[in-house]
């Protein structure tokens, strides 16, 4: 798979054909493209290619890639926390800059929630920094569309990130569904 060709998605022109993205579990062959997508998606933290290989292999049932004509346009990494098999913890949501504004992030989350898992998901948890307004809007829209609450509380203050400059990460809990 290759990174998305910007000519396939023009942000200023509405074209219904461009709304068709294939959503599927990731393959290990997607990992390098996923890492490149994350690099193009500040303020997301970029992890090692190895981390994305593990996500694409060990956590593929709770992750999703969005492609268009074989090119990566979006990625969601998520997992079921130990002892909370009915909670989906969303780690990262990335949408290629040229595919933004199409609710692709939310569509990938809905795709994950529709997948058969060992137990039905009753809530989503994620952390979001205060300045990441696009993610905040996406999760608020998901909660509203599902008629669920979105509750925010502190989770990881900046000092836990060591020497790295990092905003605090606030926990958003969306549910129950």
What is the fold's blueprint, element by element?
Layout: E1 2-3, E2 22-24, H1 31-39, H2 49-58, E3 64-68, E4 71-79, E5 87-95, H3 104-114, E6 123-128, H4 133-145, E7 149-156, E8 169-175
Parallel strand pairs: 1-4, 5-6
Antiparallel strand pairs: 2-3, 3-4, 4-5, 6-8, 7-8
Q: Would you report the number of β strands?
A: 8
What is the number of independent domains?
A: 1
**What is the residue-averaged pLDDT?**
90
> What is the CATH-assigned architecture?
3-Layer(aba) Sandwich
> Shape, please?
globular
Strand content: 25-35%
What Rg is obtained from the alpha carbons, in whole angstroms?
16 Å
CATH superfamily: Gcn5-related N-acetyltransferase (GNAT)
Cα(first) to Cα(last) distance is 35 Å
- Segments where pLDDT lies below 50 for 5+ residues? 6-17
Q: Report the CATH topology name.
A: Aminopeptidase
CATH class annotation: Alpha Beta
Query: What percent of the residues sit in helical stretches (DSSP H or I)?
Result: 10-25%
Secondary-structure element sequence?
EEHHEEEHEHEE
Main sheet characteristics: 8 strands, mixed
């Amino acid at each position: 798979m290759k990174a998305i060709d910007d000519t396939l998605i023009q942000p200023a022109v509405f074209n219904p054909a461009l709304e068709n993205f294939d959503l599927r579990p990731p393959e290990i062959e997607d990992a390098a493209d996923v890492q490149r997508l994350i690099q193009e998606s500040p303020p997301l933290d970029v992890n090692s290619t190895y981390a994305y290989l593990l996500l694409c292999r060990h956590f593929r049932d709770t992750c999703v890639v969005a492609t268009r004509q074989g090119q990566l346009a979006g990625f969601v990494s998520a997992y079921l926390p130990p002892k909370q098999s009915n909670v989906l913890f969303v780690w990262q949501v990335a949408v290629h800059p040229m595919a933004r504004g199409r609710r692709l992030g939310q569509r990938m989350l809905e795709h994950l929630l529709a997948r058969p898992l060992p137990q039905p998901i009753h809530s989503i948890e994620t952390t979001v920094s205060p300045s990441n307004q696009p993610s905040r809007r996406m999760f608020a829209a998901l909660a509203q569309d599902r008629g669920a609450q979105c509750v925010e509380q502190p989770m990881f203050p900046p000092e836990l990130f060591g020497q790295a400059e990092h905003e605090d990460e606030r926990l958003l809990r969306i549910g129950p569904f």
